């Protein structure tokens, strides 16, 4: 049985997909880590009975100071896997090293194309015929870690950004929980 912590900053649709998938497994979603007080993901966690830990990057401390404090709060929970789900922060080497090869992220483009916070929009505007998502391990860089799996969808000519984004999110909500379960069950090393 694996213990999962999800780090999120926004509405939490991927958090919800992960929570739903883990509910039907022997693994447990034991914690949400959030860096935004008004993020809707907090309500999702509360509804699911998942505790929330805050990480405050805005206090004036360094990123490492905030993460050092968080690491102390993570230890008693025996976290096996950290899952970034719309967590809009670059993690410091301190946290990455503490959970080496046990932090994964999802990105709404076929990396290495369109890394960073505007992946959906850049992918949509690219003209690429094949689009999709990437699930990867987290390293020190911005969306540079080793790719675990990619999911692809074809471009639909004339599709609106909103419709494209909905297709990307649907793919994320299906594929990310599958990969998480595969990792927890030892099917992906």
Automatic annotation (TrEMBL):
Q: Which reaction does it catalyse?
A: N(1)-(5-phospho-beta-D-ribosyl)glycinamide + (6R)-10-formyltetrahydrofolate = N(2)-formyl-N(1)-(5-phospho-beta-D-ribosyl)glycinamide + (6S)-5,6,7,8-tetrahydrofolate + H(+)
Indicate the annotated site residue(s) for Raises pKa of active site His.
143
Principal EC category? transferase
Protein origin, superkingdom: Bacteria
Which residues of the sequence carry a binding annotation for (6R)-10-formyltetrahydrofolate?
63, 88-91, 105
GO CC annotation: what is one? cytosol
Every copy of the Formyl transferase N-terminal domain together lies at 3-180
Active site positions, chain numbering:
107
Q: Enumerate the CDD domains for this protein.
A: FMT_core_GART
Q: Which UniProt keywords apply?
A: Purine biosynthesis, Transferase
- For binding N(1)-(5-phospho-beta-D-ribosyl)glycinamide, which residues are annotated in this chain's numbering? 12-14
Q: Name one GO molecular function term.
A: phosphoribosylglycinamide formyltransferase activity
> Which pathway, per its entry?
Purine metabolism; IMP biosynthesis via de novo pathway; N(2)-formyl-N(1)-(5-phospho-D-ribosyl)glycinamide from N(1)-(5-phospho-D-ribosyl)glycinamide (10-formyl THF route): step 1/1
Any single biological process term in GO: 'de novo' IMP biosynthetic process
Q: What is its EC number?
A: 2.1.2.2
Q: Say which family it is in.
A: Belongs to the GART family.
Q: What does this protein do?
A: Catalyzes the transfer of a formyl group from 10-formyltetrahydrofolate to 5-phospho-ribosyl-glycinamide (GAR), producing 5-phospho-ribosyl-N-formylglycinamide (FGAR) and tetrahydrofolate.
Q: NCBIfam families this protein is in? A: PurN
**Stated name of the protein:** Phosphoribosylglycinamide formyltransferase
